[in-house]
Input
Amino acid sequence: MLTIDGLRATAGDREILRGITMSVAAGEVHAIMGPNGSGKSTLAQVLAGHPGYEVTGGTVEYDGRDLLAMEPEERAHAGIFLAFQYPVEIPGVSNAYFLRTAFNEIRKARGEEEIDPMDFLDVMAERLKLVDMDEAMLQRSVNSGFSGGEKKRNEILQMAVLEPRLAILDETDSGLDIDALRVVADGVNALRRPENATIVVTHYQRLLNYIVPDYVHVLANGRIVKSGGKELALDLEARGYDWLIDEPRTAGAGA
Amino acid sequence: MNTAFLEHFAALPQEGPSFLAAMRRDALARFTAHGFPTPRNEDWHFTSPAPIVESSFEPMRPMAAPIDRSAIAPWMAGSDEWPLLVFVNGRFAPSLSSTASLPVGVRAMSLASALLEEPTLVERYLGRVASFNEQAFAFVALNTALMRDGSVIHVARDTRVSRPLHMLFLTDDAADGGVTHPRNLVVVDRNAEVSLIEQYASLAGGRSLTNAVTEAVLDDGATLRHYRLQRENMRAFHTGHVDARLARDAHYHSFSFATGAELSRINIYATLGGEGSGATLNGLYMLDDVQHCDHQTRIEHARPNCYSRELYKGILDGASHGVFNGKVYVHAEAQKTDGKQTNNTLLLSERARIDTKPQLEIFADDVKCTHGATVGRLDALSAFYMRSRGITAATTRRLLTYAFAAEVLETIELEPLRTALEALTLARYAGE
Output
């Protein structure tokens, strides 16, 4: 589904991704872990088309298309969804209007019929339950004045409504207490399908107890320094990141 | 000196009560002495009245042909069931107006009839609130000298009016090259409460000048919600002056919505003349092409324990030019004044320009006065967030622009009007 090959990206003058190579197939869950500043959030944002980063090398193929040539909205139309680490507040636009507009624009792009506001409310009522959110949230401005937990749940609500093929969760667990974490993880798990894939970006192993990955990749300094199965996450939890980051240097010193 | 207006004065019919004739002569003398303001005048630094002065407007001709009610439907701004006073080319149009549903305690009439029927009320207040003895107020002086018609609203003590009164000032095909001087007087007695819509619009595309003055007098405990809509055609010139005087515990809520006219200057002034009184002055201007719109607000804190709140927002596209000048004047005795002023501008084009100038003059020592201004473009991160959800770049721009305006539109308490202005704003940026 997704093939990343030698991806490099900069923010301003700073190179953050220094050649990322990985691939994700339908039905899989990939966890991307790494210390702060390793580039894992950048990878998530570059895949969604964040304008603040410039891709300076490599390719990304998504369902046979050149993902990097697509506008952010085209990526969404093609089924890519990024749950933001810091969801953006948009005062003046209600959650309901925002979601319905997004839902209909995606349908329109796919040649499907738009849905009217009443029918959309029915869709919403069901998805709200999934993330344990109150209907009153729909009338509030997007993320405006939401608590940290509400914002994260709102991201998963959007994901539930837009039903992406490739969901990228960027530190969705940060700032959540254990109950909120469980709600968010249950929501994500309920949306898993054999034809879809999920990339979970996280600093801690905690979330991976609930969203169990098939593969774990460790990012350091803009590169994948280790890949493995879900047990790698437990290793990281026990030993931290230093042994991985130091490893190449140690090896170099010994040679 | 432009002599056209002196000729207008000479041609005025000799009618009306004697106090009015004296006031007209006085105003004309002031105008003649001071002349029109130039950019050297601090209050007119960013707005030159030269295009108006050089246009040599004629006195306004009467309406070209009878107007059907359906022609004014687009200007109903919420509901066509509200009491309505319509003026066409500066003259009261009874056939388009409907004041039958006015509640007990409220009188609404044209200035021309009030001068005959209520000369005592008019004499007591007219010209007493809006000062014209400065060059900056040349247009107020002209209005005072040349006024012909307008509306007089009186709300009697303890009367609470649920439905708003709508004053609609239209110009038609015959208005090209003409000038009107609408003059309104609003008197709200003790503990009374009323909402007014004062709207200026064009039925045709000719260039005319509207030079309006509205005086409002709020007695103890009175509340006035005043919605001023300037939606004239894109060639029109518009100068407007609103002056409200508040007694103890009175509340004045003003909203200025301006999308029309090529050149407009609107003053919204309030004097907090009684303890515990307060003014909320909000506004939204949305400009495009070569439009120039200047708002000057002035809040005079004359007594202790008063509050003022201001939120003005501008959305500027094309090569338009917005001006906001917010004056707050706190007298030495106005202790415990609580004032807050905000002016936010959204620039949609590289060529658009805003001049924003807060002006606080504080002579009391125990006050809380803040002001802030922002000028910016659409937020890139918000735009990315929306586009990452599949919303196209064009729709994103429209929604974020609307959202910018929504914050101030939400302060309109009159729900049908708020809905109507929200719809206008959304449609304006729909781009379809």
Remarks:
- The mean pLDDT of chain B is 95.
